[in-house]
Amino acid sequence: MTQTLRIDPEFKAQIPPLTQEERKQLEENILAEGELLAPILVWNGAIVDGHNRYEILQSHPEIPCSVRNLELETRDEVLVWICKHQLGRRNLTPEQKKFLMGKQYDAEKQADGFHGNQHTRPVPSADAQNEHQQTAEKTCERIARENHISASAVRRAALFAAGVDLAEELCPGIRQRVLSGDLKAPDALFERLAKAGPEEYAVLLEQIKNPQSRSKPAAKQKLFQTEKSSSSEPMLAPHQGESKLVPEEASSLYSQLADASTAMQERWSTIFKQMPTLLTDSKQRKAIQAILEKHLAYLASLGFDLSSVMTESKGEQSA
Predict the structure, then answer these.
(1) Distance of alpha carbon 241 from alpha carbon 251, whole angstroms
(2) Which CATH architecture best describes the domain 9-71?
């Protein structure tokens, strides 16, 4: 290896690390071939894709370093490329996928609004700001379609990613624990951290690092509800006391469930448009019916009254 390449911390941070087994297998493959089968991709001398291959070559200088330059104009375009490339991997954790989608959305917004650096960029007019906002919305919707989720889920992914990055600044090493799934903290905490002021950082970071401690108040609330239900007084309906009786992140969880439902509907609609016979062919409809029955059985097992839902739905359609 004769070339010296630069490691850009931000570029590298977007790339999920390999497991020990994956890295070992990659090194064995490189040694067996005696060369890199895929070149290391660089931009302005910085590695964009191939950090692990480059690190392996450091220990095996006899193997030539194959490099290819990416023809991209801006740093934000490079970040978009990295995120989209990594989202194509199949072994991502849910946290990694959400982080990459959020980073892609943010980078694309920055790239769309780029017209020079911070010193040469003109102050945008009201019309330009409105146009940029519309472009951002279109970008959000496109990323949502590409990943079969809702647009609001993409916007929350951007907040999640910003919160994870800020947590990493405050506590180096925590990003890897979160994205690998080793540290399970509610998404709402990262969203709050992204929007919080410096005076709130310490409290939120402690809650992220010790998510178990946040479950205790909720447990007390559940006990309170149980005790009250055994008394002669009627218990309030969940929606009436919701703001006091559920954790702060409940609203975010509701949104995530709604997003999942919307994404399912959008995905099914896309499939039906691509293959209309799924709705017209009796055998294919029977197969889909079986899929739906499994889904409905799952919801019924959770205690939901599906008969009332279907009745309300029919009433709305006939109105």
Answers:
(1) 13
(2) Alpha-Beta Complex (3.90)
